[in-house]
């Protein structure tokens, strides 16, 4: 598999919510970074992270509009969206994937998460502690 094929397979696994396949496509030391710079490392931790995210956003999906690769780095632009607490959201997004041994060693997401934060804030306001 070349880097673009690995990337596409990973995106398909995400869109299928196939956490088992997502994990098989991550390196053991996989690094996830969100648009705020928060990082999580390790395939086992990320497996749980994906399960939690799909639980919160059961129809989460990625749509890729543009794709470029050079060597072992893939860059993509498109949008991400889904539904949280019955409220749909969609935002422009970009991704950077570093491929190593036909697996995703690094997955960086660049997105305006304000729509998600707004929905979660409503949840927080509805259930104050």
Write out key terms for the chains shown.
single chain; alpha+beta; 129 residues
Model description:
The protein has helices at residues 3-15, 19-24, 43-56, 114-126; strands at 26-33, 39-41, 61-70, 73-84, 87-100, 103-111. With 129 residues, it is of the alpha+beta class. A six-stranded mixed β-sheet has the order 2-1-6-5-4-3, with helices on both faces. The longest helix has 14 residues, at 43-56. The mean pLDDT is 95.
Sum this structure up briefly:
This protein has 129 residues and is α+β, with helices and mostly antiparallel strands. The protein has four helices and six strands.
How many H/I helical runs?
4
Radius of gyration: 15 Å
CATH-assigned fold name = Nuclear Transport Factor 2, Chain: A
Q: Note the overall shape.
A: globular
The tally of beta strands, per DSSP, is 6
Mean pLDDT: 95
**Helices and strands: which structural class?**
alpha+beta
Largest sheet: 6 strands, mixed
- Residues in β-strands, percent: 35-45%
CATH class: Alpha Beta
Distance between the termini: 49 Å
Could you say what the CATH architecture is?
Roll
Number of folding domains? 1
Percent helix? 25-40%
Topology:
Layout: H1 3-15, H2 19-24, E1 26-33, E2 39-41, H3 43-56, E3 61-70, E4 73-84, E5 87-100, E6 103-111, H4 114-126
Parallel strand pairs: 1-6
Antiparallel strand pairs: 1-2, 3-4, 4-5, 5-6
């Amino acid at each position: 598999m070349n880097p673009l094929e690995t990337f596409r397979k990973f995106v398909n696994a995400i869109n299928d919510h196939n956490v088992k396949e997502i994990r098989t496509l991550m390196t053991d030391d996989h690094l996830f970074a969100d648009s705020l710079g928060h990082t999580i490392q390790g395939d086992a931790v990320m497996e749980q992270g994906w399960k939690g995210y799909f639980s919160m956003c059961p129809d989460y999906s990625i749509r890729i509009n543009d794709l470029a690769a050079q060597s072992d780095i893939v860059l993509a632009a498109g949008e991400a969206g889904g539904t949280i607490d019955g409220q749909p959201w969609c935002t422009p997004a970009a991704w950077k994937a570093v491929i190593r041994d036909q697996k995703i060693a690094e997955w960086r997401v660049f997105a305006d998460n304000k729509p998600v934060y707004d929905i979660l804030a409503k949840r927080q306001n509805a259930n104050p502690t």
